[in-house]
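Hello Y.,

Per our agreement to keep a running log of every chain we model this quarter, I'm adding this entry. I've kept the format consistent with earlier entries: sequence first, then predicted structure.
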Amino acid sequence: MATVVAAVEEHSSRVESPRLNELEYQQVCRLGQVMSEDIRICGRSGSHFPILVIPMHKLVTMVRKNLAAGHILVRDVRLNGGAASYVLQSGTEKAEYNDIDLIFRVDINGVENGSDRVKEAVLHSLQEIHLDHDDKPLPACTGFIEDAYIRKMVKVSNEADWWSLICLTNASGHHVELKFVDRMRRQYEFSVDSFQIELDQLLSFYSSEKPQLESSCYPKILAESVYGPFDTALLHLNRKLIATNSPEQIRGGGLLKYCYLLARGFRIDSSFDFSSLTKYMCSRFFIDFPEIIQQYRKILSYLRDHFSRDDEKRSQFLSILYDVVQESTVCLMGQERKQTLDLISSIAQAEQLAHQSSGCVRFGPPNSHWFQGFYNKHLFQGIVGNIPTNINRLKREFPSLLFSPNTVPFIYYLPNIAHS
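Predicted structure for the entry above:
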């Protein structure tokens, strides 16, 4: 009895923190909807690995169990990112989200090869999901599973940070990002993406005999804003206001996310001096991505992950990015700044051509069908027979798509050609 009373008192004291807030019934229902949704984990194109389907809450429970089997303590599990904003936002217009971001707060102290054990827990979970649907087991070698289902992996380990990210692939772009965090110095970019919703109470509710959410019976769930006061961050979300601090602490400076929010109709909070903040954003972006090829890959990757192919906001995003870089970049020499502006302009022109061609010309990765040559010491890639290889003819027929000297490759593919 004393233990129960102590738990209630701890819960009450935590709710009093300005960074925390208890979810209302409608918010809990939306959270239940997100966590009950069947997610599709897709094998890499051409790998012949089956699509794995599982409700989100079961995936979380499975990964947590396998982490425990690997002697990794999980303090709690949280929903983060756009999905958390979707759950919390009031009004009829809900936040858009592509990926589902989950944070497993783990204790790695004293654990040998902690990142390897985390990866093994995820891969073993994928094997278990497959066995639940198919008697034919996946290959015993986890390397095959990793190649087939893992879209990307990131590991950061230093005095201030220890975290790893494993992203599970979804063919339609709705990826599942599993982040395992022991410590992280900066956990958000802007106030509107600073929400973390604790899932432990909901997971316990799902394991009960009758997991049916009702207004008279639903779990008490806390959400936290790691930006600062919860009410302030929620006000920014509901009013679509952009607010942040110290963007120089963010990898990439938050520059692309800032342009994304503007393209999505968010407005700058007038209480912030964004004329100064954008200078810090640009400076940090060019510190983290100093080479033009890195900038090219980062921008294209961001477009692919945050905008559908037919999204009209793509061109608006690029236009905003061009203006911000032009007005706020103070850390580059004139020629370097011009290179980046030429890069953004060329990507935008290629996007426009793709739209006018109904998607017949698009960016894509190379494969065995590709012709490779050089133009101004940089790789030009095109399909033999579809893109002229004579440089003078290229200049005449595709003037808007030719990158300026010392920039990066542009890539074409036809939709009916398979690529990986």
